[in-house]
Every structure is written in structure tokens, then in C-alpha cells.
Amino acid sequence: MQRDLLYEHHRAHGALLRPQEEPSPLLSYGDVPAEYRAAREACVIFDETDRGLVRVAGSDSPEFLHRILANRVQTLEAGQGNRNLLLTGKGKVLFDFDLAREEEGFRLSTPPGAAAGLLQGLDTYLFGESVELVDASEEHAPVLVAGPGARDLLAAYVGELPESPHEHGVAERDGRRLGITRVAPFGGESFRLDGGPELAPRLWDELVAAGARPSGRIVADSLRVEACRPLWGEDVSPDVYPQEARLEEAFDLSKGCYIGQEVVAKIDTYGGVNKLLCPLRVSHDDPVAPGTRLFRQDEEGGEWRDLGVVTSWAYSFLRDGGQVLAYLKRRHQEVGTTFRIGEGPAEATVVEVPGA
Question: Is the residue at 2 inside a domain?
Fold first, then answer.
């Protein structure tokens, strides 16, 4: 895994950190409620310098990627992109990443620790085509600027910004080239900026000086759990189908064949998955460990049935208490449905998915 390039920089500024080898090690800059308010009302900056990058080039690369990936590739123009998936032959999610088309090829930005596996997965389907796959994680050092004030702050910093989801381009700042991509990891508009590893500390400091409040994993988890946005490696794994993880934005049912397409299409045609990722409000503030089972009594009030499993927990400032993401079995996903958490007595109740 690529190390967080700003780790010592954060340490020197008094940030709360977990071990550097863990993904997204920056937890907070000391005032989590203020960071959360800034994310909801103004502008925050998150350190994503440990994300991975796979570059794909070669004359056959558009056709190659379009043939195996779940979302559109060949019809994208330079400057466009999307959230995309590499599935198993049985239609389950191997990798979840952001794809960007450039003039010279494609850039696949991955969650921390995923680049090498994605490259290997792509290479499995390479049979003599003119395609070059490169793990370029060492040149990828993005930061994420989010919140309702992000666009205004960045417009003053670099000028014109991407308008459409996953649109990307290059801006200049004091003679430096910055890649900018519009993304939505928490459901709202955010921007990922990448000036490379050498410029990452300066970019961070300048954006903080411009008004972006430094923030970390605690607030990022609160935002994405409140928005019911799954995270690869925690909520998304080879055990789930895209529809179960609410990843409809990351696959295209009309693009033709790709790895796992037949299964994904059948789920859409015949309806229903056996489980679905749902947000639930928790009756206490204590963390709930991933893998914790959720139970309900049968209609006669007798046997307790295992009907779900927790994948993520965060403190929700929106709900003033704990909130989890969990996979719930069919017919037990209705808003207001209450479960016993593990051996109890704590409970979790299904809440609405924002925008659903």
C-alpha cells in the first residue's frame, strides 16, 4: 500500500493519527464537531494521498476496458469519466474505482491498497491486445475538497472547475499543473485535486490557508454513513452484487457484454436481491464492530432470526447518535424496522436513504 505522504506533516500539526500502514490514517485535527459543521456548512479538506492509481494505455485500451468493465468506457471522451467496477464471472464486485479518460489513455484511481490487485485483475483478461497496464500509485497524491463552499473556494484558487459528475481537467496554479476531478464520495459535490507527491504538502497548506478546514476519517465516515455510500474494502467485497451495495451508478445495463454482465442483468430483469445495504440508527453511541449480526424475533415472538450484518459504523451528528450500514435480508428493509444488535440489549432501526 502506498503510504500517506502527509503523515509526518499532520503529526507536526497535532493531528490525531492511527498507524501509518492503515488506510486513511488521519482521524481528526482535534475538533470533530467543528470539522463536521464545516463539511455541512462550508468547506473541508481530506487527505487521500494513499489512494492508488492504475494507468491504462495502448491503441486497444478503449475496447479492452469496455469489454471487461461494468460501466461505459469506449463512448467516453477525453475529460469524462465515471465510477466503474471489475466484477467476478458470477457478477460480484472485485474492485470499485474512479475511471477517467485522457487523451493518452485512462486513469483508474483506486481506494488505498487496491491498485496492485486491480492491475492483476485486468491483466487476467489481456490476451495479446495492444494495452499497457502500469501501477502509477507513486505519482498519485490527491486531496479531496468537499462541502457547499468547495466550489467557490476552488474557483478562487484555480479558476474554472469541472461541472459534470466525474468530469476532470487540468488547472494551473503558480505555474504548477493540478489535476481536478469532480467526485461525490458523500453524495454531494466534491473535488479531488492532484499535483503529485512533491506538491502535496504545499497544496494542502495553501488550501487550508484559503479556508478549507483540515479534517479526517472520523468526519468522512460520518458523512458517507449518513449518505449510505458504501466503501470498498468495508461495505463492498467479492461477497456482494453491485445492486446489493447500491452501486447502480457504477454499471450500465445497456452497454453490452462485460465480465459478470449476465448475472447483473438477470437481477435487474427478475427483480430482487437477497440482501441490501441499509442505514440504521443505533440506540447508543458506542462503536459497533463490522461483522456484528442483527436479529429479529419471528412473528410469534419466539425464535430470534439472524437477518443482517453490520459493515460500517460512524457517529452521526445528523441523528445525534450512532449509525451503521448493514446488509439486511429481503422483507426486513423497511424504514422503521428494528433489530437487536448482537446479544443485545442495544437496537438498530432502519432509517431513510437520503435521496432514495
Answer: no
How far apart CA 151 and CA 182 sit, in angstroms, is 10
Distance, in Å, from the CA atom of 325 to the CA atom of 347, rounded to the nearest integer, reads 14
- Both 72 and 20 in one domain: the answer is no
Per-residue pLDDT, 43: 98
From the list 116, 84, 104, 8, the residue with the least C-alpha distance to 259 is 84
In 1-127, alpha helices (H):
7-12, 32-41, 61-68, 115-123
Q: What is the pLDDT of residue 301?
A: 67
Domain of 330, in residue numbers? 274-350
Interacting residues of 221 by C-beta distance below 8 A, sequence separation 6+:
312, 313, 314
Question: Looking at the 3D structure of the chain, how many domains does it have?
Answer: 3
Q: What are the tens digits of pLDDT across the range 257-282?
A: 999 999 999 998 887 789 999 999 99
- Could you tell me the three cell numbers for 267? 437481477
* Whether residues 63 and 16 fall in one domain: no
63: closest CA among 27, 121, 106? 106
Q: Which residues of the chain, if any, have pLDDT below 50?
A: none
Residue that has been written with the C-alpha cell 488506510 in this structure: 23
Do both 112 and 169 map to the same domain? no
Whether residues 162 and 41 share a domain: the answer is yes
Would you state the pLDDT for residue 302? 79
CA–CA distance from 348 to each of 68, 129, 224, 308 (Å)? 39, 51, 18, 11
Q: Which one of 117, 138, 159 terminates a domain? A: 138
Give the domain CATH number at 163.
3.30.1360.120
Q: What is the pLDDT of residue 3?
A: 67
Q: What is the pLDDT of residue 2?
A: 59
